[in-house]
Amino acid sequence: MKNLSKAMLLLVAGLALLFASAASAQNYPPPAGWNLDLAPGLLPAQQQYTNYSTTFTGTGTPTTVTFLFRNDPGYTAFDDASVVDTTTSSSNMLANPGFETGDLTGWTYLNQYGVLFAGVVCPGCNGLSPRTGSYAWVDGATQGYDAISQVIPTTLGDLYTIDFWQAWINTNNVAMTNFSQVSTNGDTTDTYGNGIDTLVYVGPAPPPGIPEPATLLLLGSGLVGLVGYGWRRNR
Question: What is the rounded CA–CA span in Å between residue 199 and residue 53?
């Protein structure tokens, strides 16, 4: 159990009612169909920003680029994302790529599992600082995934490159050496699991299993994330 005040526990209990479809999220794997999955690659040193990238070919229709996050024992910081048309050497097609508006302007937030410790835009929190600027996306989604996405125009046949920087921290000191889609250490209910991963999806819509959130779900997950922003993950 996390070390929460009674008021926080009551708040979380109340907000949990908003997550009717995922009131007891437990060790959910990501949906299939990703363009990039960091698992089972080696984890870099903690709090060290590392660059990742992938490519896709344009279909001539608007394309949804979605980033999914999970970090059972700690938090992941995501910053300085970009999508460029390498065929035409375009500029970055993502709006607010470094979250420097201080919020998710330009992005859509998705939380199909109703995970606790959902992501928030913050000016360095939970031991993680932005790579550049004043803000980053910091995500501690537990035993499941939440996500952020944007829709961009794409040209049929053009090659696009997705690029982002990411750092992580393990605030519960769980033994981990690799990214992992799910928790494999026997802890499948709380923040002592060893699941940590980031995936990238590209398609005409968010990936299967990542529906657009209902208003109450979006509000509730955001509030839980804001409460989680100040928590350390310890018993």
Answer: 11
